[in-house]
Amino acid sequence: MKHFWIVCLWMGFALFCNPTLAQGNRRQMVILDPGHGGVDSGAIGINGIKEKDIVLEVAKEAILLNRKLFGNTFDIYLTRYNDTLISLKDRTKLVKALDPDFFISIHCNQATMKAAQGIEVYVHQPKTTLNLDLQSKSENLSEELLSKFHKFLGFKVRGMKYANFWVLRDTQTICPGVLLELGFLSNMEEAEHSGRKESVRAYAMVLLQALF
Questions:
Q1: Which of 102, 97, 82 is nearest to 36 (CA)?
Q2: How far apart are CA 51 and CA 34, in angstroms?
Q3: CA nearest neighbour of 33 among 72, 84, 73
Q4: Which SMART domains does the UniProt record give (predicted)?
Q5: Labelling 159: which of 63, 116, 144, 210 has CA 20 to 30 A away?
Q6: β-strands 74-78, 102-109: how paired?
Q7: Torsion from C-alpha of 60, 63, 67, 68, nearest 10 degrees
Q8: Is residue 15 within 8 Å of residue 23, measured between CB atoms?
Q9: In this predicted model, what pLDDT tens digit does every residue of 117-175 receive, in sequence order?
């Protein structure tokens, strides 16, 4: 896996040198959903780090980078801003209330096989043909995330997958939405990377890049 801090510096420099990335005619609204929280720690890494902490740090870092490097290109909201357990219903209720341009639920993966590595992105597969446009946009966002995380951070691509997760199912008619799995905390290499501040910054940076 590439050195995250080098990637961050390079991408930050690229943004400052290319003002078209930080400007736009319209601020797109994005809701980031840091999974778990409170008594629900999510996956616990082989090194003791917790999924709920990593995903919240990534979401908060995205807000910070959006302001500092992207000229507030995006209007970003989080489903939780601290270590609190928010119900799935309340998470999707926010999406329905704000009607954003994109919804990204952020998670970390875990497996019994310690060698499992890589990034995967889930989208909801509708049972009808009523939401083909949103479905297509969700799949495009998924591919962008997979491509960017591989290109800039060297993540192994495990591909786009379909799932009936509540946060995807309950928002599929509102906006394009995906559930992002940021590597495996059960894998020592990826757990160690995810525990570093510069890695969190890199995750947030690439996530934002995928939205352009």
A1: 82
A2: 9
A3: 84
A4: Ami_3
A5: 63
A6: unpaired
A7: 40
A8: no
A9: 999 999 998 776 668 899 999 999 999 999 999 999 999 999 999 999 999 999 999 99
Is the Cβ–Cβ distance between 210 and 204 less than 8 Å?
no
Convert 194-210 to b/e letters by CB count within 10 Å (16 or more is b). Answer: bbeeebbbbbbbbbbbb
The whole-number pLDDT of residue 131 equals 81
CA distance 55 to 167: 16
Domains and CATH numbers, the chain: 27-113+135-209 (3.40.630.40)
3-class secondary-structure state, position 54 = helix
Q: Parallel, antiparallel, or unpaired: how do β-strands 119-123 and 177-184 relate?
A: antiparallel
CA 129 – CA 55 distance, rounded (Å)? 33
Residue position matching structure tokens 């995810």:
194
pLDDT above 90 (res 100): yes
**pLDDT tens per residue, range 34-80:** 999 999 999 999 999 999 999 999 999 999 999 999 999 999 999 99
Q: Which two tokens stand for residue 27?
A: 């601020």
Q: Which two tokens stand for residue 203?
A: 């995750």
pTM: 0.89
Rg of the chain over all Cα atoms, to the nearest angstrom? 16
